[in-house]
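Lay summary. Proteins are chains of building blocks that fold into shapes, and those shapes determine what they do. In this project we predict the shape from the chain. Here is one chain we studied, written as its sequence of building blocks.
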Amino acid sequence: MKLFLQGAVAGYGIAIPVGAVAVLIMQTASRRGFLIGAFAGVGAASADLVYALVAVSFGAAAAEALEPVGGALKVVAAIILLAVAARGLWAVRARGVPKPTSSSPPLATYALFLGITILNPATIAYFAALVLGLDLGDSSWASKALFVAGAFLASASWQLTIAGVGVALHHALADKARVVTGIAGSLIIAGLAVYTLLS
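And here is the predicted shape, written in a compact code that computers can read:
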């Protein structure tokens, strides 16, 4: 149980800092409803699951293996985020911010957010450092599985909370305010994409 709680703390630690993916989950839920926002959030949490699993399996070696391609992954992530931001701005310009609808394919949304989040190699470095710090190397696979499960569930619960906030904000705002927040959200995502590229 201790490793499950340590995994949960690790999951919240990587999920809570507000970045481009968090803003995008909130914006997606606001525009398309909670169901699509939930698939987006679980997609992001699934990337944390993958990296936590790789970290407990291979530790620092996995982080070192990804280091040479870290720059390329940042460029790809930034391009995708810029494209998403541009699409959001175009949607607002073309027809305003629509009422939430779950017409978008949930699995496509899940795959998009899994891909965007997994392009951040810093996540595996984070989990690898934690694994080394906790000295999980000699732990049983059952113990490691508890750590990974805790990290995933914590990350997923936070991403679902973000999706819920996005839906609540949509319902609380007037139409003009939704347009303003839609534009602001897209600009924030674009800014974070540039920051990702330059950091």
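What the prediction tells us: The mean pLDDT is 77.
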